[in-house]
Write a structure and sequence with these properties.
Strand content: 15-25%
Largest sheet: 9 strands, mixed
CATH superfamily of the largest domain: Bira Bifunctional Protein, Domain 2
CATH class of the largest domain: Alpha Beta
Radius of gyration: 35 Å
Shape: globular
Helix content: 25-40%
Number of helices: 25
Structural class: alpha+beta
Distance between the termini: 80 Å
CATH architecture of the largest domain: 2-Layer Sandwich
Low-confidence stretches: 438-447
Oligomer: single chain
Number of domains: 6
């Protein structure tokens, strides 16, 4: 068995599969593209689903990768166990309709045991398999595996809804009796018991069926193309090869742990309480990689996950005595550990550090707020004579403020309180059930479509033609190939086409198909890529078409031109965002339509009005410079050497198209563009908004639509000028400022009049003092314009010792406002108003000394005032 670094393990995996003619797929961005079923890329196969369901046919059916992934479904176990992580790397090899069971198992055994490769001892390997899968059992025997090392398990069948499924066979490494304190031996595997002795290092999934939830497993149909999907956990493999007790004692985590030792002054003890070290080392990896890939901390979705990870790590830092921001200091260490395969982390470390440090500083203030909240809760419990902090209160601190239960427990026990652990666990379980119920069900792959996957005829898209003649090579009606069609909808493939298939945010071309006599035979309403990459035209058939015949294909020129203007402007906008906001403002999605462009980008805060103005001006400057737009085709390495910007989520082949706009913008792009920026005419930002944590969106228009937007703004301004009697538009700001000042003066006078009126009312109201149960009170109906006026009465009541309690009600329109004020330690105002408010069909609450409520039944005001005495508690 070889001793290897993590970088060597990863590279050996990829090198081995290259010798077996596999294409190496680069690690994809952690943020899924066009997959709403996933919050994060959570496995090695997640980015390859399009190949497995047949919607796209890969150039090479054999693929291998090392894919970074994030899973947070069992975050509470991170640090408690030897192997749980929020971010991990999955090493995978995949066969899309090529080799299957025999080769996958044979090659897997070779990689693990050959002296040329990992050289693991054969007697340390155990395999589990699905009991009905005798073929896998026999394959392992043929490799020389002892039958006693082959364990049947009913759970070894992989399926997650409709789509590809099948048995799987898992490979375990036996770490020996030192990790088996109860000496249970092979029972640990046979009974599927969680243990530290037999470590699962690899799972080979044999996708051979189309799972159907409506059928029993025995009735699943065989896939037309069987697939292999495997996954080996890099962290586990490295731990075994480095002889580490847990994954955390490897070169993937130890440099981080050593730095935390320096910062905290504490020592990491592998055999002691080291959970905080592990949590910090794990979570900073997830944070660093996720931010490098464009995610940012926030209050929802991916952003909430990152915020929770950061806060959890910070709290564990506090347990180690670290009070100041420190996580950001670990970012460059993560980058150095992973630089051999992920150089982008070090390239972005300054930006990542900035985001994490800012979030740490914000959370420090949040901790203070949470502590204040807890103190208030404990104070109220003391007043009520209670000695237990209930589970819901603990959960609120955990969920809202990011407080670990241990911190809440420590602070509460310091003040003599017991902890409702059961209530907290119940609240946690309820939240998890809500999350599961609200989660997008998915992750499975679509059913394979043999008809579309079977299209192998070639088709070439011509960028330079808007009309051409072409031969109809494929006609599909009702998901079946046909020779002719005379009406209805059909899918068409031609040997060449001027129609652009929707891709890279650019919508598809529309247009018409004519026969050799010039007669209209079909309208094209959409164009998408077929699984093998051919433009697949969606056609509304108007008269007969036949395979093998020649037709004239003509796109809608006006539609194409307007889309090209928006697409070219998108490139300018992207460059302007970099210049104004920074290089981190990367594209996270786009849509180039006929009447507008939509551009999503990563950024950690709202774009200011001044920044938007700069961006808009910069784009228009490039338009007015009349920059030439040029496109060249070259290989990917040459394109990168030109400085071409590769867009997030796009896949690029060996040959790529590079779009240059003067010396202002260089991007890889397969879309269509204008010849010169001057053709865009005008650019106008219509809206900027947040669409998710760390992601902003700009809506903009070009040409006539931009002009229309400016005209609409001008018309609004003219309307305002007319209404405020300002003859000149240039005088509108000055005139509005003057009117606002007049309004402020009137409001000030109005407030003064209200206060005088309230004072007059108060003189008569506050003299009518009643007493009940030893408590003096004033209860009256008053005239008030709003709830604020009631607070004015209360302020005057506080100035003199009129009574112990004040209850006021005021009809306001068809509703009623109620105020209760109380001297300190007399009657809790919040409690009293909750008793009175239902009388006027309302509800409310507040602090012990001041509370308010709203109601919908003004006719019940007298009843409410009459009920005050009965609802007062006995004094003393």
């Amino acid at each position: 068995m070889k001793e290897m670094t993590s970088a060597q393990v990863r590279q050996m995996w990829l090198d081995f599969w290259q010798t077996k003619a596999h294409a190496i797929e680069p690690s994809a961005n952690l943020i899924p593209v066009d997959d709403p079923t996933l919050l994060w890329i959570n496995s090695g196969v997640a980015t390859l689903k399009k190949y497995f369901d047949g919607s796209v046919v890969p150039e090479n059916p054999r693929i291998a990768n090392a894919q970074k992934a994030i899973r947070t479904n069992d975050i509470e176990n991170v640090g408690k166990t030897a192997r749980h992580h929020t971010m991990f790397e999955m090493l995978g090899n995949f066969s899309i309709g090529d080799y299957f069971r025999e080769q996958a198992i044979k090659w897997g055994f070779e990689l693990l045991t050959s002296p040329q490769w990992f050289d693991l001892p054969k007697d340390k390997l155990y395999m589990t398999y699905y009991p009905d899968d005798k073929e896998s059992y026999n394959c392992w025997l043929s490799c020389g595996v002892d039958p006693s090392h082959l364990i049947p398990l009913e759970g070894n069948f992989w399926e997650i809804g409709a789509g590809p499924s099948g048995p799987d066979t898992e490979i375990f490494f036996d770490r020996g009796e030192d990790f088996d304190p109860d000496n249970m031996g092979i029972r640990l595997l046979a009974e599927d018991i969680e243990n530290d002795r037999y470590i699962e290092i690899w799972n080979i999934v044999l996708s051979q069926y189309n799972a159907d939830p409506d059928l029993p497993r025995s009735a699943y149909k065989e896939l037309p193309n069987k697939n292999i999907d495997t996954g080996m956990g890099l962290e586990r493999m490295v731990a075994i090869l480095q002889g580490a007790k847990t994954n955390f004692e490897t070169d993937l985590f130890l440099p981080l742990i050593r730095e935390v030792e320096k910062i905290s002054g504490k020592v990491y003890d592998p055999d002691g309480d080291n959970m905080s070290f592990k949590v910090i080392a794990d979570h900073i990896r997830s944070l660093t990689f996720a931010i490098a890939d464009g995610a940012l901390p926030g209050n929802e979705g991916r952003g909430y996950v990152l915020r929770r990870l950061l806060r959890r790590a910070v709290m564990h830092g506090r347990r180690l005595g670290i009070k100041d921001p420190f996580l950001y200091r670990l970012v460059s260490i993560v980058g150095r550990i992973m630089t051999s395969y992920y150089p982008e982390v070090l390239e972005k470390d300054a930006f990542i550090e900035k985001i994490i440090k800012r979030e740490e500083e914000t959370f420090a203030r949040t901790i203070d707020a949470g502590t204040v909240h807890l103190e208030q809760v404990l104070s109220q419990l003391k007043q009520q004579g209670k000695d237990t902090l209930d589970g819901q209160a603990i959960f609120k601190l955990y969920d809202t403020y990011g407080f670990p239960v241990e911190l809440t427990e420590e602070l509460a026990e310091d003040q003599g309180f017991k902890i409702d652990h059961h209530g907290f666990q119940t609240a946690m379980k309820e939240q998890q059930e809500r999350a599961r119920a609200g989660a997008v069900k998915g992750g499975s792959m679509g059913m394979q479509n043999e008809t579309l996957s079977g299209i192998v005829e070639s088709s070439v898209f011509d960028y330079d033609k808007e009309e051409l003649t072409a031969n109809l090579s494929v006609l599909i009606v009702h998901n079946e190939r046909a020779e002719t069609a005379a009406d209805g909808q059909a899918f068409l493939v031609f040997d060449r086409t001027p129609f652009y298939a929707e891709m890279g945010g650019q919508v598809a071309d529309h247009g018409v198909i004519k026969n050799k006599d010039g007669d209209l035979v079909a309208r094209i309403t959409d164009v998408q890529k077929a699984p093998n990459g051919q433009p697949l035209h969606t056609a509304e058939i108007l008269s007969e078409l036949s395979v093998g015949q020649t037709y004239t294909l003509a796109i809608d020129h006006d539609r194409r031109y307007r889309v090209m203007a928006n697409h070219t402007a998108t490139h300018l906008l992207h460059a302007a965002l970099h210049n104004v906001l920074g290089d981190h403002a990367r594209q996270a999605g786009s849509l180039n339509e006929t009447d507008f462009l939509r551009f999503d980008f990563t950024h950690f805060e709202a774009v200011s009005p001044n920044q938007l103005r700069q961006i808009e001006e910069e784009v228009n400057q490039q338009i007015w410079k009349a920059l030439a737009v040029k496109t060249i085709e070259t290989d990917i390495d040459t394109a990168k050497s030109m400085g071409a910007l590769a867009l997030f989520g796009e896949k690029y082949g060996r040959q790529v198209r590079v779009v240059t706009i003067g010396d202002y913008s260089v991007e890889l792009c397969g879309g269509t563009h204008l010849k010169n920026t001057s053709e865009i005419g005008l650019f106008k930002i219509l809206k900027e908004e947040g669409i998710g944590s760390g992601t902003r969106r700009i809506l903009a228009a070009t040409g006539p639509q931009a002009f229309a937007a400016y005209r609409e703004t001008e018309d609004i301004l003219k309307t305002v000028a007319f209404n405020i009697k300002s003859p000149q538009l240039k005088d509108v700001p000055h005139r509005v400022t003057g009117l606002l000042e007049e309004l402020r003066q009137l409001q000030k006078e109005n407030t003064e009049l209200k206060e005088k009126a309230a004072a007059v009312q108060a003189e008569s109201i506050f003299t009518d003092v009643k007493e009940a149960k030893g408590i003096t009170y004033v209860a009256a109906q008053v005239q008030a314009s709003d709830a604020a006026a009631l607070r004015t009465f209360a302020d005057k009541w506080k100035q003199k010792d009129y009574s112990d309690v004040l209850v006021l009600a005021a009809p306001i329109g068809e509703k009623v406002s109620v105020l209760v004020a109380s001297k300190k330690d007399t009657v809790p105002a919040g409690q009293l108003i909750k008793q009175l408010a239902p009388i006027v069909s309302g509800r409310g609450g507040g602090k012990p000394t001041m509370a308010m409520a709203g109601g919908t039944d003004p006719s019940a005001i007298s009843a409410l005032l009459g009920a005050v005495a009965d609802n007062l508690p006995l004094k003393g």
